[in-house]
Automatic annotation (TrEMBL):
A Pfam family it matches: RVT_1
Name assigned to this protein: Putative tick transposon
The organism of origin for this protein: Rhipicephalus pulchellus
Molecular function terms, GO-annotated: catalytic activity
One biological process term in Gene Ontology: DNA biosynthetic process
Domain Reverse transcriptase, first and last residues per copy: 496-768
InterPro entries listed in its UniProt record: DNA/RNA_pol_sf, Endo/exonu/phosph_ase_sf, Endo/exonuclease/phosphatase, RT_dom
Length: 1134
C-alpha cells in the first residue's frame, strides 16, 4: 500500500510501572504534552477496576483512551490517541490479561492499525503470547506495533553477554520478519541505546515496529529517560515537525502567590503603593485602578522571567539525565548514583508544578504531600468543571466552545434580568414586608458608625487562602502580604465611595464559573445542570466582609430562629433535631403531621433587587449598611467562564451572588417575610408539643413547613406562591416533596401540586426514614465508604496523611449524620475497621487498633474515634440546646431517667426510650461514672474528647519502656519533616514496633523463607540488629557521623525517638538526618529481600538527601544547615 504522509504524527511507548497514583497520571500527561505525542502505548498501568480507569480517562481528556485492564496487581495497558487527529474507530480487540490492545483507526484519509504490547516475563508465556500476536499482524493497513516486549532480539541490546537462549526472542524475530515489520530502534541512531535501566542490567526492551511503507517517512527516533520510571520513552515521528503553542489568555490571569516570596516583586509593589498614597493629581478611584493594572503588568513580567529561568534549569536537568543515560549505556553501573540524584531534582520541579496546578484549581492539599480532594477521588468533578464538551440548546447538541458559550450566555441573561413590576406591586410587597420588625434605634446606631481601619484589618486577615480571585487576578494572599500599606488607602477608598455613591469600576466586575451539580452525563448536557459561582475581586470582598461583619451583630433582630444558615451562633443541626424530634413525638401517639419541603428554583439567582432593597429600607439598617449594600449591588456585571473562554458582559439585575460574603445573610433577610407569613397565619396549624409550636424551618433556600391538616398545607403553598409572585422566586414542583406521618385518614400521592410519600425522606442530607431503625443507613454507609477507600489505594500518602484523609473525608461525613441519628457500636467498629485497613494499606492490622486513636504525643495517630465523638455530641447537645421546642421534648421525655438534670412540676412518668434519646441517657450515665457533673458542665468539646481518649485507651506497649526518656514529641516532628511519605510511614512502623523485620514476621506466624537471620551477619533480624548492630548499619552510621560532625544516639531509644533538641544557637534538624539514615538502611535491605537489582545504603541515602535538599533550597531564608545536606549528597563510600 503506497503511503504519502504529509501530516505530522508522533507515536511513543512507555512502561510507567503503575498508573493508579493520580500524581503519576498527571506526570504522564505532562510527558505527552512535553513531547507532543499523538499516539501513546502505555504498559504496566496496574489499573484493574473500572472506577480507577474512568478517573484516569478524565485526566487524559484530550485523548481517546482504549484500555486493557490489569488482572491482579500486574499488567494493564492503555492506548491513547489524540482527539485532534479526529480518529474514527473501526475495530478494537483487547485481551483478557491486560497485555494487548489492537486498534483499527482511520484518520487523515489513511487506515491504521496500532498494536500495544506488554509481553509476559516468563519465556514460555512469551512464546504463546507472540504466537497469538502474529494473527493480528495480517492487515493491509499502516501497521505500528509498539510496547514492552520483555526480551531482546540482538545481543547488543543487552548490557551484559549471556549464554542463555531465549526461544521467545527468536520467535518474535521470525514473526516480525514474516510480516515485513522493521524495528525502528535497530536501524535509527540514538545516543541512549537501552530503554530499561535497572541496576547494572540494562536492555532495549521497549521497541517500535512499523510496516515497510512507513519506514521512509520517519524523520526522528528518540529515547527519552523519564524520571518517574526506570523505562525510557521511545518515540518515533513522521511528517513535518510540529510546534504547538497555546497563546496565554491574560483575561483569566491570576497572581502566582509564589511571587510574594520574591524580593524583587515585593519591592516593586511597595514602591507602587508609595506612589499611589503620595499621588494627589488623580482621583482616588483612578489611582486604585491604575495601581492594580501596574501590579498585574509587573507580575506578568517577573513571572515570565522566573518561568524562563525555571524552564532553563529544568531543560538542563533533562539534558543532563539524557547524557548520563547515554554514558550509562556505554559503561553500565558507573553513573547510577548520579542518575538517581538528577531524578530527585527533577522530582522536586515536578512536585512544584503539580502542587501549583492543584492550588490554581482551588484544591487544598496536605503539607508536603498530595492535594486532598484531587488525590482522593474528586478528579472527575474537577475535570468536568474545567471542560464542558456538550450542551443541549433549542433541541440541538452543541459541541463547539463558541456554541456552548452562547447557550449559557443566553440562559443567564434571561435568568439575571429583572422581572417587570406588576400592578399594585408596592401594596402586595408591603403586605409581606410589614411583617418583618425594623431595627430598634440602639441596634441601628451600633452598626451605623464610620468604617474603621481595625475593621478593614480584620476583614483582610480573615480572607481565605488558595481561593480563585476575580477578574483583576489579585488573590487574598496579596492583600494579606501588603495589608499594612493597603489599609490606610482602602479606608480612604471606601470613604470616597460613600461620598460619591458608587464603588470603583473594578468592584462591579466579576466572573462566574460553572460547577457541575452532579456527575450525571445527561444532566450535564443541560445549561441548568451547573451551579453558578461568582468570582469577585478581593477588594470588593473586603468591603463586603466589612458589611457582613456589621450585619452579623444585628441579624438575629431581623431574622427569627427558624432560619439557621449563615447566622453566627445557629446551626443546621437544630433544624434536623427538630424534624427528628417531631417524628419521634408522633410515634406512639394519635397525632399527625405533614412535612412539606419546598424547593425554590435558582433561589439565589432569582432574588429581585426591587423587593430586596424595599425590604432593607423597611428594616432601617442605617446609612452605612443600607448604602453599602446598595453600592455592592448597584450595577454589577459578570462574564461566564466557559472552557477557559469568557462570554460577553451580563448585567446582574437580579440575584445575590453566590461567592459574595453578603449573600447568605441577604438571602436570609429576603426569605424572612415568607417565613413570618406562615408563622403568623392562624389558618396554618403547625405541630404543637406542650406550649411550643413548629410551623416552619429554613436553612438558606431549604424550607420545611410542618402542618397538622390539609387546609394548612394548602394555605402554606398558596402563601409561598404569592410570595414568589412578588419577590421573583418560583417553586420547583418537580423537586418539592412532602410526606404524611401519623394517623391520616387519606394520604394522597399528589396534593397541592406537590408529590407526597407515606414515609419520611431525606431532610438536609439526613435520612429521616431511618429515625426508628438507623441500621440500614449505616450498613449502606459502610458499603459506600469501603468503595470509596478502595479507590484511594495506590495514592502516595504517608500514614499521617491517611489518618488526616479519614478524619476529614470519612469521619466528618459520618459525624454529620451521627449528630442526629443513633448508631450502634457494631457499625462504629465496622467503620473503624475500614479506617484501620486503609491506614495500614493492608487487609489486617499489625497492632492493637486502639493505639491509632491516641494523640501523637502518646504514640498514636489522632484518628477520630466515632464512639468518643458520639459521646461528646450527645452530651453537648443536652448541655447546649436552647430551642424552646427541643427543651420541651427533653424535659418531658428525660425527666424520669435523668432526675438530677430536669426538675418538673408534674410527676415524671416512666417511658421506654429508644434511639437517639436512649443514647443521650446512656451517655450521661457513662460520663457521670467517670467525671463529676461540675467538671462536665465546665469543659469544652475538645478537652472532653481528649479526656475520654486518655481515660479509655491505655499507654501502648511500645511506649512503656521509654516513658521517662526524652523525645516524646517525635511523631509531631516526623509528621512535619520535608521527607517522602514512604519515609514517614516507615518511621511510624519503626516507632510502633510493627516494622516487618524477619523476627517480627516469624512471631506473627507469617512465613519467612529460608531463615530469620540477616543475610549479612547471620544473626536474627530484629529492629535493633537492622539499625544498630548489623555491619552495614555500623559502617554507615560511622561515615554519617563524620560527615555531619555529630555524635548520633544509635541506641534502642535513639532510633525510636530521635532525641534532639534545637536551641537558639543551633537549630540543625539532626533528627531529619537520622531519619534519612534509618530509612536508607531499611530501603536497601528491602531491595535485597525483594530480589531487586541491589543498591547500597549509601546510594539510597544520597538519593533521599538530594530530594530533601531540593526542597530545603526553597526555604526563606535558606537555612545554614543546607551545607550538611550538600555533604550528605556526596556521602563517601564505605
Amino acid at each position: 500500500m503506497a503511503t504519502a504522509l504529509t501530516f505530522p504524527m508522533c507515536v511513543a511507548t512507555l512502561n510507567v510501572r503503575g498508573l493508579r497514583n493520580v500524581r503519576r497520571q498527571w506526570q504522564l500527561r505532562h510527558v505527552l504534552e512535553q513531547y507532543n505525542i499523538d499516539v501513546a502505548a502505555v504498559q504496566e498501568t496496574k489499573i484493574s477496576s473500572a472506577s480507577d480507569a474512568n478517573l484516569a480517562i478524565e485526566i487524559f481528556r484530550d485523548y481517546d483512551v482504549y484500555i486493557s485492564q490489569a488482572r491482579g496487581a500486574s499488567a494493564g495497558c492503555f492506548l491513547l490517541v489524540r482527539k485532534l487527529l479526529n480518529p474514527t474507530l473501526m475495530s478494537l480487540h483487547v485481551d483478557g490479561e491486560g497485555r494487548l490492545i489492537c486498534c483499527d483507526l482511520s484518520f487523515h484519509s489513511h487506515a491504521w492499525r496500532f498494536v500495544c504490547v506488554y509481553a509476559p516475563s516468563k519465556v514460555n508465556d512469551r512464546k504463546d503470547f507472540f504466537l497469538s500476536l502474529a494473527s493480528l499482524l495480517n492487515t493491509h493497513r499502516n501497521l505500528i506495533v509498539l510496547g514492552d516486549f520483555n526480551c531482546v532480539c540482538d545481543a547488543r541490546d543487552h548490557s551484559y553477554i549471556t549464554n542463555r537462549y531465549d526461544a521467545s526472542a527468536a520467535l518474535l524475530q521470525q514473526v516480525m520478519n514474516d510480516k515485513n515489520l522493521i524495528d525502528v530502534g535497530a536501524h535509527a541512531p540514538s545516543s541512549v541505546r537501552f530503554t530499561h535501566f535497572q541496576g547494572v542490567s540494562h536492555a532495549r526492551l521497549d521497541r517500535v515496529y512499523v510496516s515497510v511503507n512507513l519506514w521512509s517517512h520517519i524523520h526522528n527516533y528518540a529515547v527519552k529517560p523519564i524520571f518517574f520510571t526506570d523505562h525510557c520513552l521511545v518515540a518515533v515521528s513522521w511528517g513535518p515537525q510540529k510546534f504547538r503553542k497555546v497563546p496565554p489568555n491574560w483575561e483569566l490571569w491570576k497572581l502566582n502567590v509564589q511571587l510574594l516570596r520574591e524580593e524583587c516583586f515585593v519591592k516593586i509593589v511597595n514602591e507602587l503603593l508609595r506612589e499611589v498614597t503620595q499621588c494627589r493629581q488623580l482621583p482616588i478611584f483612578a489611582q486604585w485602578e491604575m495601581f492594580k493594572e501596574k501590579v498585574k503588568y509587573e507580575a506578568i513580567g517577573i513571572s515570565c522571567e522566573l518561568t524562563q529561568r525555571k524552564n532553563a534549569e529544568k531543560r538542563y536537568l533533562y539534558d543532563l539525565l539524557h547524557k548520563l543515560h547515554a554514558f550509562e549505556s556505554q559503561e553500565p553501573g558507573l553513573y547510577v548514583d548520579e542518575i538517581n540524584s538528577v531524578r530527585a531534582q527533577i522530582q522536586k520541579h515536578d512536585t512544584e508544578i503539580y502542587r501549583g496546578a492543584m492550588i490554581r484549581s482551588r484544591v487544598t492539599r496536605f503539607t508536603d504531600e498530595e492535594p486532598t480532594k484531587t488525590a482522593l477521588g474528586d478528579e472527575k468533578r474537577y475535570a468536568l468543571s474545567k471542560q464542558i464538551l456538550q450542551i443541549e440548546s433549542d433541541g440541538y447538541i452543541c459541541t463547539e466552545t463558541c456554541q456552548i458559550r452562547a447557550a449559557f450566555e443566553e440562559y443567564y441573561k434571561n435568568l439575571f434580568t429583572a422581572a417587570e413590576l406588576q400592578d399594585e406591586y408596592e401594596e402586595k410587597a408591603d403586605h409581606f414586608i410589614a411583617l418583618v420588625p425594623p431595627l430598634q434605634e440602639d441596634d441601628r446606631l451600633s452598626v451605623d458608625g464610620p468604617i474603621t481601619r481595625e475593621e478593614i484589618r480584620f476583614a483582610i486577615t480573615t480572607l481565605q487562602k488558595n481561593k480563585t480571585p476575580g477578574p483583576d487576578g489579585l488573590s487574598g494572599e496579596f492583600y494579606i502580604k501588603f495589608q499594612d500599606l493597603l489599609i490606610p488607602f482602602l479606608e480612604q477608598l471606601f470613604k470616597e465611595a460613600y461620598e460619591r455613591g458608587e464603588l470603583p469600576p473594578s468592584f462591579y466586575q466579576g466572573h462566574t464559573t460553572l460547577i457541575p451539580k452532579s456527575t450525571d452525563t445527561e444532566a450535564l448536557k443541560k445549561v441548568n445542570g451547573y451551579r453558578p459561582i461568582s468570582l469577585c475581586n478581593v477588594d470588593y470582598k473586603i468591603f463586603a466582609k466589612l458589611l457582613t461583619n456589621r450585619l452579623q451583630t444585628v441579624i438575629t433582630k431581623c431574622v427569627g430562629d427558624h432560619q439557621t444558615c449563615g447566622i453566627r451562633g445557629r446551626s443546621i443541626q437544630t433544624n434536623i433535631h427538630i424534624a427528628r424530634s417531631v417524628l419521634e413525638c408522633i410515634d406512639g401517639s394519635m397525632d399527625q403531621v405533614a412535612l412539606l419541603q419546598i424547593d425554590l428554583a435558582k433561589a439565589f439567582d432569582k432574588v429581585q433587587h426591587a423587593f430586596l432593597f424595599r425590604l432593607l429600607r423597611h428594616l432601617q439598617l442605617g446609612d452605612v449598611l443600607y448604602n453599602g449594600i446598595s453600592l455592592c449591588y448597584k450595577k454589577c456585571t459578570t462574564r461566564l467562564i466557559v472552557n477557559r473562554t469568557l462570554s460577553d458582559i451580563i448585567e446582574l439585575n437580579s440575584s445575590v451572588r453566590q461567592g459574595c460574603p453578603l449573600s447568605p445573610l441577604l438571602f436570609a433577610i429576603y426569605l424572612e417575610p415568607l417565613c413570618l407569613s406562615v408563622l403568623l397565619n392562624r389558618s396554618i396549624r403547625g405541630y404543637r408539643y406542650e406550649a411550643e409550636e413548629i410551623k416552619v424551618l429554613a436553612y438558606a433556600d431549604d424550607i420545611a413547613f410542618f402542618c397538622i391538616d390539609k387546609p394548612s398545607v394548602q394555605e402554606a403553598v398558596n402563601i409561598t406562591l404569592r410570595f414568589c409572585e412578588i419577590a421573583g422566586a418560583s417553586i420547583n414542583f418537580d423537586k418539592s416533596r412532602g410526606f404524611w406521618l401519623g394517623m391520616w385518614a387519606q394520604t394522597p400521592a399528589v396534593f397541592s401540586n406537590i408529590h407526597w410519600n407515606a414515609s419520611p425522606m431525606k431532610y438536609l442530607g439526613v435520612p429521616l426514614d431511618n429515625y426508628r431503625n438507623s441500621g440500614p443507613h449505616w450498613t449502606s454507609a459502610i458499603t459506600a465508604i469501603r468503595r470509596k477507600v478502595s479507590a484511594w489505594h495506590g495514592r502516595d500518602l504517608s500514614i499521617f496523611s491517611r489518618v488526616k484523609a479519614c478524619n476529614i473525608f470519612l469521619a466528618s461525613k459520618l459525624v454529620y449524620v451521627l449528630q442526629v441519628l443513633h448508631c450502634s457500636r457494631v457499625h462504629i467498629q465496622a467503620f473503624h475497621r475500614i479506617f484501620a485497613c486503609f491506614i495500614w494499606c493492608s487487609s489486617w492490622e499489625p497492632m492493637r487498633r486502639d493505639n491509632l486513636f491516641l494523640p501523637l504525643e502518646k504514640g498514636g495517630l489522632s484518628l477520630a474515634h466515632l464512639f468518643v465523638r458520639q459521646l461528646v455530641l450527645r452530651f453537648f447537645y443536652l448541655k447546649d440546646v436552647r430551642h424552646p421546642f427541643l427543651l420541651a421534648v427533653l424535659r418531658n421525655r428525660l425527666s424520669y431517667h435523668l432526675p438530677f438534670l430536669y426538675v418538673t412540676t408534674s410527676v415524671a412518668r416512666e417511658s421506654q426510650l429508644w434511639g437517639f434519646l436512649k443514647e443521650i441517657v446512656d451517655t450521661v450515665n457513662f460520663l457521670k461514672a467517670r467525671f463529676t457533673l461540675q467538671y462536665l458542665y465546665n469543659i469544652d468539646r475538645t478537652s472532653l474528647t481528649a479526656a475520654l481518649v486518655n481515660n479509655l485507651f491505655p499507654e501502648p506497649v511500645y511506649r512503656q519502656p521509654y516513658l521517662l526518656f526524652s523525645g516524646q514529641d517525635v511523631l509531631f516532628r516526623v509528621r512535619r519533616m520535608c521527607v517522602s511519605p514512604a519515609a514517614k510511614t516507615f518511621f511510624f512502623k519503626l516507632h510502633t514496633a510493627t516494622l516487618p523485620v524477619k523476627a517480627w514476621l516469624n512471631e506473627k506466624a507469617i512465613y519467612v523463607p529460608w531463615t530469620v537471620n540477616c543475610r549479612l551477619c547471620n544473626q536474627p533480624e530484629t529492629i535493633e540488629h537492622c539499625f544498630i548492630h548489623c555491619r552495614d548499619a555500623f559502617y554507615f552510621w560511622d561515615i554519617l557521623k563524620r560527615t555531619i560532625r555529630k555524635d548520633l544516639p544509635i541506641t534502642a531509644h535513639g532510633i525510636r525517638f530521635l532525641p534532639f533538641k534545637k536551641s537558639l544557637t543551633n537549630n540543625t534538624p539532626y533528627d531529619l538526618f537520622m531519619l534519612l539514615g534509618l530509612y536508607s538502611l531499611w530501603k536497601s535491605r528491602m531491595i535485597d529481600r525483594h530480589a531487586e537489582p541491589p543498591r547500597s545504603t549509601r546510594s539510597v541515602f544520597r538519593e533521599e538527601a538530594a530530594q530533601v535538599r531540593s526542597v530545603v533550597e526553597t526555604f526563606e531564608p535558606v537555612p545554614e544547615w543546607l551545607t550538611l545536606l550538600d555533604a550528605c549528597v556526596c556521602l563517601p563510600d564505605f
